[in-house]
Amino acid sequence: MIFVTGMFRSGTTFVARLLNQSDxxxxxxxxxxxxxxxxxxxxxxxxxxxxxxxxPLEDYYFDESKYNFFRTIQNTRLGDVKIPNLKYLKEFTExxxxxxxxxxxxxxxxISADNYGDFLKQGEQILREVYGNKRLSGFKExxxxxxxxxxxxxxxxxxKVIHIIRDPRAILVSNFYSEGRYPIxxxxxxxxxxxxLAYHYTKSNQNNxxxxxxxxxxxxxETIQGICNFVGINFDEKLLSTEEITDGGNKKWTxxxxxxxxxxxxxxxxxxxxxxxxxxxxxxxxxxFLCYPEMKLLGYSDFLDESFKDISSTNLIDEKDKLAKWILxxxxxxxxxxxxxxxxRLELLLKSVTEKEKELNFLIPSFYEELKTV
Length: 374
What we know:
It contains 17 helices and five strands.
């Protein structure tokens, strides 16, 4: 099972559609997020940490209850949790997968499973049936890095996980120029969580790899050859062609680009640095402040001011009327308090800290040690 994951607007769909052109992989986009989210919800119902079932996956920072729930998710296998309502899960999966994997969505009703691991196994068989029954199978999901160990556990002999990472400043611009923004704190903390876990999993398990969006676009042949070597397929020049890519309904696929200029097809190199001309300085200062250590570790540069002497809590205040309506209930934060948490987080990199401080501020203690070196 090839699992491609990362933050939205990072090129995950592009990678998925390219891999689907291989004669060796049957690939689907965004078919099983409902399964992973329902698994989260079921664990929450059985734990002391209750979450709104409609809420996005949490970032787990600064709150001991959230962090403990994160550890519960990490330490619980999909196959060990019973599905409380199979009818609901099938309907949820059908609806959420239909826009991206139409052919697969129409067959979800066939699944009969009593745990989440078996649901995915049966879903993978349907994926093969509707998308070519090739030697390997795969799917991509955004926001879902934290489930990489779960996928490897369900498909232990074939799993490879590809984590796609993109400069958070480019992600912010892409989101802010689209309809329905997300809050800056939400974007930054989700990005941090996703890259932290990608880095940790890649260090600790050879079945994980990181691909930077910028490398994919600027050096496509070398990057895709690396992906092919990693997942165990032959490189084919058609993996570099974007003219015949199809979507989940076997129709011609059009790339999802916020900026619809003529060059937005294929490996559009202008997409790498476009953010520099579009981002407001106040927003740039905010995202760099919130993501600075992780960005440095991953090789991103060109910061406005690495001292952050002019940053204040006002940089983190969103224009509420521009936010997506669905996220409003999850964005009611005390910004001055959250700003102090973030300032303290940066200062911890200059101190001796406890294991608990490492966990609550950086999620993975060994990752904290890596950040201290940059």
